[in-house]
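Sequence in, structure out.
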Amino acid sequence: MKAATHIKEYISQLPAGQPFSSSTLRQFASTDNIRQILNRLVKAGKIKRVGRGIFAKPEQVPAIGEVLPSVIEIAQTLAKSTGEIIAVHGAEAARQLQLSTQVPVRLIFYTSGNTRTLKLANRPVRLKHVAPSRLVACGTTAGLVISALEYLGRDNVTLETITKIKHHITAEEFKTVLRLVEHMPTWLSDIFYRYQQGFTNE
């Protein structure tokens, strides 16, 4: 079976709207051959290029039309392709946890890879290199909590902030956060210690 047929069958089995990396197709053909086949599929309107080496089969939604994957989904696919860790920025984490109402103007992600700017879904996205300690439990609610609190900083995180988070996530997720105290900055672990002491003494 020709490489083009293999690749078309692979793409046809993907859920509409799910991004995929060209690197996942290396089992079917050489890099140059894959690039040529994907370029033809893009020109034919079968798939969309949503980032460098990242593609998606558009999802058709009634009354809306063509829907492409979110920037976060594309970034996650990029991470799988490059082997790096990519996480949402602390400002976005704080917004998702309702600790802030501000919507970040620029799309920024933390990464274990090099700092760089990419174009994802036709939007410039900044990948900012950070230390491994800033990527603890990446991809989980607990990791989102830690990232948000580190971003807010010691002057803006109080015992009331921890209580708000506890009510916003599940009990199991909050237990996971507590188990990760040793990976937090000293000032943040101290706040969790005080919170637990107060909770125990109630």
